[in-house]
Amino acid sequence: MEVIHMQTRSTRSFLSFLSILGAIICMQWATASQADEVLDQAIHDLQHEWGIIKYQTEQDKRKEQFKALSDKSHLVSEKFKGHAEPLVWEAIILSSYAGELSGLSKMKALSIVKQARDLLLEAEKIDPNALDGSVYTTLGSLHYQVPGWPLSFGSDKKAREYLEKALAINSDGIDPNYFYGDYLVKQHQYGEALAALNKALDAPPRPDRPIADEGRRKEIEDEIAEVKKHI
Q1: From residue 44, how far is each of 29, 51, 52, 90, 231 by CA, in Å?
Q2: Domain count of the fold of the chain
Q3: What is the DSSP letter of 103?
Q4: Does residue 5 lie in a domain region?
Q5: Diameter of the chain by CA atoms?
Q6: What pLDDT is recorded for position 13?
Q7: How many helices (H) and strands (E) does the chain have?
Q8: Rounded CA separation 62/106 (Å)
Q9: Across the chain, where does the E strand assignment appear?
């Protein structure tokens, strides 16, 4: 009888352990899930503010507002270390800020885009597929838009490689097709560029990014009109 009694106590202890372990796992899962929701909301807020500045703000106010948003995005990256998404958006915002600089600030702009590139390379190590391949879309766009050596890191070859990687991840997306088309325009490959731009124009809408979609489609339509002049 004592043996049976001992076994019963042992079984109860084991079941109690399982119950506690299950509760801990549930708490950890809930905490992780809540953290993911907070991160998703932070990324959505950055995307939304970027869209407003990029497409709905007067040009003479964009520089200041992109600078403020880049500071905000850096805080998000610091808060969510080890996640690729904040790094990608910090890089996108920094690149947009650099694009608003002119005149004597051009050298500062080159320094900022290098910082953006480094953030993207860091994000690539964490998750190259994050945000539907936005790591590669943004890297590709930087490489064909900035000067090459010795001024900066620009490379048409690397631009194509990165943009093709982006398309391999998100073949129907508006951004990878737009930037690939824009890249091809810069290479004077107008027929291929028109095909890519038309595909970008036909991309499915992003319900959570209506402002960015509307602004991007306007850019695509304008570029298509220019490309057709060369065909």
Answers
A1: 22, 11, 12, 13, 39
A2: 1
A3: G
A4: no
A5: 96
A6: 58
A7: 9, 0
A8: 16
A9: none
Low-confidence ranges of the chain (pLDDT < 50): 1-7, 15, 17-18, 21, 24, 26-27, 29-30
Q: What is the pLDDT of residues 114-135, one digit of tens each?
A: 999 999 999 999 999 999 999 9
Work out the angle at residue 109's Cα, subtended by the Cα atoms of residues 103 and 110, and round it to the nearest 5 degrees.
Answer: 115
DSSP assigned state of 196: H
Burial of 48 (0-12, 13-18, 19+ CB in 10 A): middle
pTM score, two decimals? 0.86
- Write the DSSP assignment of 76-96 as a string of letters: HHHHTTT-HHHHHHHHHHHHH
Give me the domain span that covers residue 102.
37-131
Note whether 186 and 144 are within 8 A (CB).
yes
Is residue 24 assigned to a domain?
no
Give residue 12's Cα distance to chain centre.
51
Residue 63 domain-assigned (yes or no): yes
- Mapped onto helix, strand or coil, the DSSP state of residue 188 is coil
Would you say residue 121 lies in a domain?
yes
Rg of the chain's alpha carbons, rounded to an integer? 24
Q: What is the pLDDT of residue 18?
A: 47
Under DSSP, the state recorded for 173 is: -
Cis before 150 (ω within 30): yes
CA–CA separation, 125 and 88 (whole Å):
12
pLDDT at 9: 55
Q: Which is nearest to 184 in space by CA: 230, 120, 151, 133?
A: 230
- Are 76 and 42 within 8 A, CB to CB? yes
